[in-house]
Amino acid sequence: MPQLNPSPWFFILLLSWTVLLLVFKTKILTSAPHNNPMLPDLTASHTTPWNWPWT
């Protein structure tokens, strides 16, 4: 049985991993956070704490 040359198969493997990583990189970079974190408003009046009915 003849021996296959590994060079083109290695290139195909390397190229497929490169394409896969590029696709994931573009998807990660284009996805923006949906909600930006906000600091709580310290000047607003807070609601009164809720009391348990059995206390």
From TrEMBL:
<comment type="similarity">
    <text>Belongs to the ATPase protein 8 family.</text>
</comment>
<dbReference type="Pfam" id="PF00895">
    <property type="entry name" value="ATP-synt_8"/>
</dbReference>
<dbReference type="InterPro" id="IPR001421">
    <property type="entry name" value="ATP8_metazoa"/>
</dbReference>
<keyword id="KW-1133">Transmembrane helix</keyword>
<keyword id="KW-0812">Transmembrane</keyword>
<keyword id="KW-0375">Hydrogen ion transport</keyword>
<dbReference type="InterPro" id="IPR050635">
    <property type="entry name" value="ATPase_protein_8"/>
</dbReference>
<dbReference type="GO" id="GO:0031966">
    <property type="term" value="C:mitochondrial membrane"/>
</dbReference>
<feature type="transmembrane region" description="Helical">
    <location>
        <begin position="6"/>
        <end position="24"/>
    </location>
</feature>
<keyword id="KW-0472">Membrane</keyword>
<keyword id="KW-0496">Mitochondrion</keyword>
<dbReference type="GO" id="GO:0015986">
    <property type="term" value="P:proton motive force-driven ATP synthesis"/>
</dbReference>
<dbReference type="GO" id="GO:0015078">
    <property type="term" value="F:proton transmembrane transporter activity"/>
</dbReference>
<keyword id="KW-0138">CF(0)</keyword>
<keyword id="KW-0813">Transport</keyword>
<keyword id="KW-0406">Ion transport</keyword>
<keyword id="KW-0066">ATP synthesis</keyword>
<dbReference type="GO" id="GO:0045259">
    <property type="term" value="C:proton-transporting ATP synthase complex"/>
</dbReference>
<protein>
    <recommendedName>
        <fullName>ATP synthase complex subunit 8</fullName>
    </recommendedName>
</protein>
